[in-house]
Each structure stands twice: as C-alpha cells, then as structure tokens.
Specification:
Length: 404
Amino acid sequence: MKIIVQKFGGTSVSSSESRRIVLKKIIDKVKEGYHVVVVVSAMGRKGSPYSTDSLLDLINKEALNPREIDLLLSCGEIISGVTLSSMIREKGYKAKVLTGRLAGIKTNDNFGNAEVLDVDPSNIINSLKDGNIVIVAGFQGVNSNGEITTLGRGGSDITAVVLGKALHCNQVEIFTDVDGVMTADPNIVENAKVIKTMCYSEVYQLAENGAKVIHPKAVEIAQQSNISLVIKNTFTDSEGTIIEKADTNFYNNRKKQFNDKILTGITFKKGRNQIKVKTDDEKNETERLMNDITINKINIDLINFFIDEKIFTVEDKDLPVMTNILKEGNYKYDIIKNCCKLSAVGYKMHGVPGVMAKIVNALWKNNIKILQSSDSHNTIWCLIYEKDAEAALKILHEEFEMYK
Ligand code: ADP
Ligand code: MG
C-alpha cells in the first residue's frame, strides 16, 4: 500500500479558504495513487475561536487538574478534523476522522507533555483499505488507563512522524505558513531564505533552540526511523525544505545552495536566567547544589563550572524553585533575569577558526553584550539580554550574509 502522511498546522486549517487549499493538496495525492493520512492541528493561533489558546482561555488552569485540561485541549484537533472531513465528503471522497486513541497512539501518563510509547496503526490501515482518507486529530494520545493525553505544544508534528514510522513511510510532509525551514524566523528577519536541504542534527538544533517551525522531538524520531521530512508552505508552491541524513547527496545539495557558507540558521529562545553561584568545596557546596538541582528536577543549561564558581542558566518556569534553593541553602549567588539564548547553527563551522570571533565582534559593535557562550560541533550559543534578541538575529543574518 502506497501511504503518505500529510500534516497541516493551525494556520493551514484556520479558515474555509485555507481549508480549501488543504483539500486540494490532499486530493492531489489521492489522484497520484496514494492512500492519504492527514494529521491536523487545532484551527488558527491565539484569538481564533477554536485554537488551543482560546480553549485554554475558557478555564482557570490553576483550578483544573492536568487530566481535565488535556480532555479540553484534545477537542481543538477533533473540531479541525471533523470540519475538514465534511469538505472531503462534499467532494465525493470517503473520509474517516480518528482521535489519537482511535489512531492507536499510546502514551505515558505525563498529561500536557506526554511521550508516545507505541503506535498500533491497524485501525488506520483498515480505514485506508476501506477507501477512506484518514484524518487524525494531532497532538493527542491515550495512556494505559484509556485517558486522553496531549503531547505538548507543536505536538501534531510528533503525531505525523510517529504515524509515518508506524505506517513505514519514507517521507512525511509537514505543511505550515512559511516556505520551509529558513535561515531565521521570517517574521523577524525579512530577507530570511529557505534552506533547501538540511540534515537532522542541524534542524534539531534550530528546533530545540526556538525555531518552532518543527518540533524537535519529531526531528529526533524521524532521524531514528530514517524518515525524511519535507516542510512546505500550504499557501505557496515553494519546494520547501527536505530534512534527511547527512550523506553525500545532502552535502552536494547543500554546496549547490550555500557554497561554503558557515552558518545555516540562527534562532533564539527567550525566558532564560543566568545563575552564578560561589561554591566552597570545604563545605561540600558543589555536591549539595547539584543534589538540590537534581532532586527538584531543574533543567540547567549552558553550564560552565569553575573551581569556586558555577555558572548556568534555568528557564523562567524553574526560576522560583531555583531561587528558593539558593536562598534556603545560604549560597552566595547572582541572578541575571530576562536573558535569551541565541543559537547559530551550521555543520560547516566544525573546525573553522574565527566563527566565534566574528559573532562576538558583530554583536559588540552593536552594543549587544554577551553574558556567556558555549559551542558544539555544529552550534554556537550566546546568552544575551532578551531586549537584544531581535536585533542580534538581524545583525548576524547580515554579518554572515545568510540572505544570499
Ligand atoms: P504550524 O501551526 O503550521 O505548526 P508553527 O507556528 O508551529 O506553525 O511554526 C511556523 C512558524 O515558525 C512560522 O510562522 C515562523 O514564524 C516560525 N519560525 C521560527 N523560526 C523559523 C525558521 N528558522 N524558519 C521558519 N519558520 C520559523
Ligand atoms: Mg507547529
């Protein structure tokens, strides 16, 4: 059976006009002889009546438990799915809508950010065999007690990839409102350019560090399962971005587009806080600090350890607990709030001298302070103030001529 999975994001299903475009993309694939599995997100973004944010606005989150919140949130994708199915039927095709549970998506119990443990695709396969276009409500699954769970923001991307894996597809199409993965967020950097081919590790770095065009976990699962991802714009005919493994083909294609350019993409993530703690090992403070962080399940990042000082960052959500640990533990510490982690990604930077110097100079020239930095084989991270985030993105995009 020739199966294709197509995922359509919130803006793609937000209005009847956009859904008509989606409909055409689906029917084109049916005409090419594919059995089509469509994964949909909730309609639109903040402000749209049935979007995830609008559903959240209906309730007081503090007063409800995560189970009920997931029950509510799962409705957004079901509404999208049923709406789209009525349009498909109007066109004379058979369509069947499946919730996460009916699509066989089994997760753990972590309401609000559940992990997919297993997928049983038999229901989808039977529905396809019956001649249906199968529409799956994205972003949701079911735990071992039959309770509805959701997969976290952007989770429909995960739905699409786990279904692609279970259905043995070698490609999954992700349709969104931009022309693909771009050198920077095009809503901030006007002359950002589509990156035609990317390897998994580059996209993962961009996605993990703020470029929300694809969920990092979806990239990870695609890599493990050797599924190539195509990210395209629902509203244009652009070829989009193909994400696959870094083989000779990838290197050749990359060279064709970017020649020897060092940076592929830049992005940022706000809501970081830099913590500096003085540690005295006569008093076992390093060990105590690490234990406190572990017990409280705080995720620390950009970690620089010196003998008498430990520097790292925490997300806003962990700041109250982190501050409490530092106060209660009588540590000597400093906190810089409102920071932003800027990430510059490109597999080519490995072993190339001077990349960091160029970044530092460009930012300093524009009075943007770097509070901390770190690097890996394909990424350089700089911690800057949140207020400088957009400017820094534009400056580096120009400096490295990423628009070319
Ligand atoms: P969808 O609802 O289709 O899943 P998302 O809002 O999750 O769409 O992701 C698309 C958005 O990602 C774009 O509108 C864009 O503003 C943002 N974005 C951030 N960084 C990038 C990037 N490097 N390339 C493309 N889009 C990006
Ligand atoms: Mg998304």
